[in-house]
Write a structure and sequence with these properties.
The complex is a heterodimer of chains A (320) and B (298).
Chain A lengths: L3 H16 L5 H25 L8 H18 L4 H23 L4 H21 L9 E2 L12 H28 L1 H4 L1 H6 L1 H6 L4 H27 L1 E2 L6 H14 L4 H21 L4 H15 L5 H10 L10
Antiparallel strand pairs in A: 1-2
Helix pairs in contact in A: 1-6, 2-6, 2-10, 2-11, 2-12, 3-4, 3-10, 4-10, 6-10, 11-12, 12-13
Chain B lengths: L1 H31 L6 H21 L4 H26 L9 H23 L8 H6 L1 E4 L2 E4 H23 L1 H11 L1 H6 L4 H23 L9 H16 L4 H21 L4 H15 L14
Antiparallel strand pairs in B: 1-2
Helix pairs in contact in B: 1-6, 1-9, 1-10, 1-11, 2-3, 2-4, 2-9, 2-10, 3-9, 6-7, 10-11, 10-12, 11-12
Classes of the chains: A mainly alpha (320), B mainly alpha (298).
Amino acid sequence: MLSRANLIGAVLFLAAGIIGFFLPPWLVSLLTIAFANALVVLGLIILWRAGLVPFGQALYYCSGAYTVALLARWAGVSDAFVLLIAGGLVAGIVAFLTGFLLARYREIFFAMLSLAMSMILYGVLVKTETLGSTDGFGVDPPHFLGYAPHGDALGFALYWFVLVVCAISALVIGVYFKSVAGALAVPIRDNEIRVEFLGISVTRLIHMKLVIAGTLAGVGGALAAMTIGHVDPNMSYWTTSGGFVFVTILAGAGSVAAAFVGSLVFEIVRSFAFAVLPGFWQMTLGIVLLLTILFLPEGLGSLATRFRRRKPDTKPVATS
Amino acid sequence: MLTAFAILTDGLAYAAYLFMVAVGLTLIFGVMKILNVAHGSFYAFGAYGAAMAAGIYYDRGLPEAGGFLFMILLAMAIGLVLGLILERGVLRFVYGRDEVIVVLVTYAVFLILEDVIVFIWGPQSYAAYQPMVWAGNVEIGELVLSNYDILLVAISAGLALFAYWALKFTRYGRLLTVVIFDRETAAAFGINVTVVYTVTFIIGAMLGALGGAMMAPKISITLGIGVEVIVLAFAVVAVGGMGSIEGALVGALIVGICRAAAVHLMPQIELFVIYAVMALVLVFRPYGLFTRAQPRKI
């Protein structure tokens, strides 16, 4: 468990947390969102390793976010830990149920069906007046085991909270990637039928990956809802899913760390483009995506591996 | 009875619109195996082009009838140029990559084109209502129908018939069928697949732009009109079976009628019903209603 990669990861997360104290609040909240979204991307990487690209991951993201918002509004729950677990749990259950259907599909058809499912949720939310229709509604600031910060302190508390959740998820998913179930992703992508000949149920494996990815997306959505303090149906629209897939391609499926680096780079590029070229931020994103696909087909993560491979020694490459 | 008739006419008009945007998408997918997200941009460019044409034409006080034709011609010209640039400039570099990766390439193109629209036409919205007003209304019993909707249905039906004829009875159509069936064998028999790809993509782009131009008089042409069209066209194509023209027709009819029924009977589920139908069809027919089963390769 305490491998070198995990140690480096822990140090980096700690460093990110400490740096937070020296950054302006707007940057802290940007980083918080970036890390929350990184969890969704982490889930997408799990699927992408098996060759699956869902264009509807926003379904689980939105489920997690709305669970938090509704619990806070109707049940008066305000503890961040309870909200987080509830968000992840509901999204996981949704993923488990939709998984019975989705796990049978591959490639484009998988992408399309997941898209349809997220659009169903969008359609329902837009037409539901009690949930604020297209405007959505606000989420009260959460408490942390009785600690109820305000203003900038709340921003820092949320930042640290998100970092801890990310660190734990990264550790768990790192272990999962090394487990048999996680390692089977690449064989499934290469040749599914041969994996079945080995006596392994591919459908069941993929169903499990869907649930893990869905739960992660729900947790990400729950954190995003707490950070933004607002939820709306656009969280379930296909462009949201497209954004997550974008980051996944940018990051590459090489490692757990790629999800966090990719998500940070994405938020920074987006904010930068938004500030410097306000009329052309979508174009900037599109060009970055095109260039990534054309010249870095394995994503940003592959830069590190390429660099490492150039060294003469042939130590096995750590993957988390 | 009146409601049933209204559902039927509204559904047909909506289906005509859906078919128009879906047919180009399904053609490109059938031949090139590219799920083209940028199709929404073609639609938007067509609509903006038509609005521009309407502005140019009607300001000069030329005869009313020609304006509509001019709108369509300009939109299709834009589609031709756009399709040519995209296929030759971007897509040919990613042939052979994963289908899903190519989807993302078109998604990137879509993002870029969204801002190109702002760059060319600015953020304000446009209208091109003149042909709609010119066409007028017709009353059947208590029901008022727009002649323009009837024209839309007629053009869609004509398009479907034309596509059927072109695929079955022209030389280019037969070649296309061969390429759809097996690209490599087609190339081995001396069909220039590269040219077929380019021409198909351009035709698809022109059809997308035509859809935009036809809808321009009915809608407010504003930023983001392409975003919604993409998912709608996806839904239609997925219901019918990707790559099948008759599938797109049946898919458009099913989705159109279902949505019209929802609008008249239960407006709350209007958006929901489109994607629910899509999901339902995919549950029972994973590859859509009109697709050949693909053999699994070991």
